[in-house]
Amino acid sequence: MRRWQDHLPALQRRLAIPQTSLQLCLLGMLGGLIAALLIILFRLAIIGIQGFFLQHSDDFSSISAEYRWLLPLLGATLIGLIALATGYKHYRLGIPFVIHRIKTAYGIMPFRNTLNQFFGGILALASGFSVGREGPSVHLGAYGASTVGRYLQLPYNSVRILAGCGIAAAIAASFNTPLAAMIFVMEVVLREYRIHVFIPVMLASVVGAMATQLVFGHDKELAALEIISLSVWHFPYLVLCGVVIGAFAWLFNRNLMRMLQWFKNWPLLLRLALAGVITAAVGYVIPHAMGAETGAIQFAIDSPTAVHLLLLLLAGKMILTLCAIGLGVPGGIIGPIFGMGVVLGTILAIVPAVLVDNTSNSGTYAVLGMAGLMAATLHAPLAALVAVMELAANQQIVLPAMLVIVTAYVTTVQFFNNKSIFMTQLDFMQLPYKLSPADDVLQKVGVLAVLTQDYQLLADPDEHNVRQVLAQLQPPQQLLIKRHEGDSVQFYTAQYDVSLSLSGDSSIQYAAVKGLSHQATMAEVLHELEDRREGLVYIYQQDPTEPIGIIRWDQLRALLIKQNNLI
């Protein structure tokens, strides 16, 4: 009976082709399951730690104020110790870093960086910092799913898709929103809509949601909000609400970047200490502003008419989020945006409530505020719409949500020139995330999909042997020469050169050939050949001295012309 390893070459060749396949779907589901298990462990750890001092998870108002201020100080200390143990250079965290790795490293995440996210994220969320669990979740999901591809030595183009599957499963497992998770990955992380990517990401998202439902149940975070259908006369006011939300998104993004700029030269431990002190001080006075989003959302539900307290909570939540993210606390930004959006929407509901003396619309406006702020801050309008539909579990929110989302997004982009907070952070950290059109196309095709074995290999031949073989070659067949040079092995191509022959020199021209792993994509082939625009590379599997095929420049050129006419 053949071992499973014997099937790997066929699997690797199949996944090198950018097409929908059953194999990729199954691997995507496996990666999604691994990602979901990591997120479940992550969430259970947070709940378990908070269970020692909180009556309800993420409700920091349930602990005495004389002890509450100690939590962020202790959390900052422990996060700093973890950073010291794993090394500062690995302390790049959150969704922006994942986007960078997706574009430049096929979604493969550094291990020590992942440790920072897992343990640092648990401590940050358990101790009351205003950060979201989706930041560590995205990182852990990408690491878990891409590990499957690395273990099986799959082509990097499929490893990238598996990383996307892990991210979708992780978000679905964090918020129980499989459809929004899938859209978020395609709209924000991968930034593309291709069917061979879409299908496995969708399946992984389903797996993530099912896994979290088995452990945490089917509850939705916004299900407690009473959502009712809005009459048509609300719609002009919703446009005004969208403008306000768009302006608030610009204010938040701008101040977050200011925080990053002001404190970029501070030592990490000092930044974490400052974040702990500010969180302790504000949390002492405004406990509902602490944590991810649950406390703020619950307060908005319980006190929809307490305008002065809602304004105080919004200000406190914004300050704590800016300080936590801006000073380097590990965690995400989406959770706090949910909380601030719900509070902002509840505040905006006061105007129609005063006009008709009815507060029953506050739940609807709260959900609309969340949707608009997510769209305007993250530049993810479609993901925001789907997220609010799933979290609210109410279809009546769709039409007003579309109006608020579009208004908020257009306002923040056109009138405030507000960019996606993720892209702005990437620019600030000088992490590349943009690909050339050629690289964007070629990263999706593995070398195993293109390589040919139309060549002859000679080991340490003399010139007479080289001439004999060259005389018998039929184009496009190539001659590949393997020479032992001391302790190393070098590969060359040999071909006739008429200009050298006329000058009286040898008429054979030798050119060094670079080897690439079978996991590489055609983008790496382009990087090796684009300067000369001729020649070839050889592909190896395990041993760099044993070629399994070659790829010529004319094959690369033909692929580019076929795909997008890029050359």
Radius of gyration from the CA trace?
28 Å
**The CATH C-level class name of the domain at 5-221:** Mainly Alpha
CATH architectural grouping of the domain at 5-221:
Orthogonal Bundle
- Count of individual helical segments: 25
Q: What's the assembly state of these chains?
A: single chain
| Mean pLDDT metric | 88
Strand content: 5-15%
| CATH-assigned fold name of the domain at 5-221 | Clc chloride channel
Helix content: 55-70%
End-to-end separation in angstroms reads 47 Å
Q: State the low-pLDDT regions, or none.
A: none
The secondary structure category is alpha/beta
Shape: elongated
Strand line-up across the major sheet: 1-2-3-4-5-6
Q: What's the story with the biggest beta sheet?
A: 6 strands, mixed
Q: Can you tell me the CATH superfamily of the domain at 5-221?
A: Clc chloride channel
What is the number of E strands?
6
InterPro entries: Cl-channel_core (IPR014743), ClC (IPR001807), ClC-type_chloride_channel (IPR050368)
Subcellular location: Membrane
Protein name: Voltage-gated ClC-type chloride channel clcA
GO molecular function: chloride channel activity
